[in-house]
Amino acid sequence: MPSVSRDPQRLAAAPSSEAGWISGEDTAVCKSAIGPLWDRLADSSYLNRLSGLKPLEMTAIVDVSPARYRVKTRAGGFRLEWEEEPCEWTLHQRYRILRRVVVGPIKTLCTELKFLVRSDGGTDVTVKVSIEPKIFLIRPFARLNSARAARDLCRTIMGVDAAVHAGRPMPGLVPMPVSDALSRSKVALAELGSPESLVDRLADHVMTARDEDLGRIRPYELADAWGADRQAVLTLCLRAVRAGLLELRWEPVCPSCKVGTGKVSTLSSLGERGSCHLCDLEFALNVEEAIEATFTPNGAVRQVDVQPYCVGGPARVPHVVAQAILPAHGQADLIAPTEAGRYRLFRRGGLTTEVNVTNDEAPGEVDLDLATLAGEGTAKTPLRLHTGGVVHVGSDDDHGTHIKLERSHVPSTAATAGAVAAIPGFRRDFSSEVLRPDMSIQIRRVAIFFSDLTASTQLYSSVGDAAALKLVHDHFDVVIGIIERCQGTLVKTIGDAVMAAFADELAAARAGLEILNAWSPWVEGHPHRALTHIKLGTYAGPCYLVNANDVLDYFGQTVNIAARLQAQAESGELVVSSALADLALEQSLIKPEQIRQRYTATLKGVASPIDVARIII
Predict the structure, then answer these.
(1) In the chain, what are the helix, strand and coil shares in percent, each to the nearest 5?
(2) Domain 430-615 sits in which CATH superfamily?
(3) Which of 236, 383, 427, 543 could make an SS bond with 556 (beta carbons 3.0 to 4.6 A apart)?
(4) pLDDT tens profile 258-310
């Protein structure tokens, strides 16, 4: 077994009184297990607000120093202004925030929390507040205030622990009274067809959740917490905008820290590129993951305090397991988690290397120089490191920076622009959410669905224009109704054809089968309808979401293939890829005998043949 360093103090040590610092220290003896306790206490903005600290005024720092923001506030009767470096932490072990004061009676302020698991399952949280005074005369004041700050923060932590351990709401949460605006919104949501149980849960969340949670409501996170269907909750939130309960915002999302880097009210307000000041990255907005829909309460229902109380702590980026400041011509250590997996070491500015953390034979310590990361892209050979091991990162640069160890693959909880655009009714209800004509969004995967009414051209000659047009419109009611019931969205009608989009290709297949099942009852006893039939096709792959005449539309080879598959279908058939047919069999959506034929199709304009299947009811 390789030697493994598990000492969190391999990170830069906290200031000591021997270096001119004055420190106050106290310990909160908590009953809660470390996991849920860390999740709450790592939310430094909430903790600061709960402790009575004032909101911060922040200005971005654009030089090469480690500090990313210049911050102003008041504390202890003094006006303070400081440069704050990114928070340093090791998951479930410790975190600290260092502030280099520019205006005020002290030089530096450091707050550190250390977590230690006890044998009884509880957690000891030791708080250390260190102050470096500018002048000797304020040392007694610094000594008094550091001790009091540590004691007060421990008292706050004990209140959080009591709530976590008992399963009660967090301290500082005062449920808002039910207002007329809320009552009207609930009625409107019910009228829009939203399930009463979900409406009640959303209204309760808006009234009782913390401001930190309401400033950026993420529908998929709510759905996971409620044990509800993600698409159902996303649909609920979109309807809540129409009902006056919520407001919709679009956020460019940093590909590294996964945090929104700004908010706009419409898609058309977005530029072609986004940037993250903290990670020092620029990124294109033509990828699905780079634009997320979030929500916040309508101001008429609840006013939410979105002022910052901390620049950023571990809870803001839960996929980051360790972060440290790398000083100029110095070294910093990142401690790997005890959970094996694939991770990535990231240096501010975008240089990265993969790190495989394993329980197998692997080094317990690895040395890495920033020169290894120099150049473009990612280092090709991943580092191997034992669980709990340490990466020692050295630098010859003339300026400091921050580095972090983050999970390479994180399950997405973002309702991306692509997912929202595929929600039934989005185009109808949010016509202002149209991209600029010169902008497109790449959707990694979407199912495009086409239907075509057969023999409709002859209908106009045999039964007359009026009767034929009515039949076409009546068939739209059937097809589009089933598409939306199966969580698809109408893109457009083209003559007597329908184009739709689905976030889930299995849902597209389900819609096709339901349309085929509904067709015979629809044509029975109607002589004109009996002259027609329907044929369907669907295909899933990457697409571009574009502005076509002020309407959101899809463009790309996936659209072409879906249209070609529909053209391959005979009356009463749904043509899909063989892979989707296999998935439908696996999910018991169809039976083997419903696959009429499997074959390889050569499609016009498509370079490679595609294995497809004809499905009947």
Answers:
(1) 30, 35, 35
(2) Nucleotide cyclase, GGDEF domain (3.30.70.1230)
(3) 543
(4) 888 888 888 778 877 889 989 999 888 765 668 899 999 999 999 888 888 88
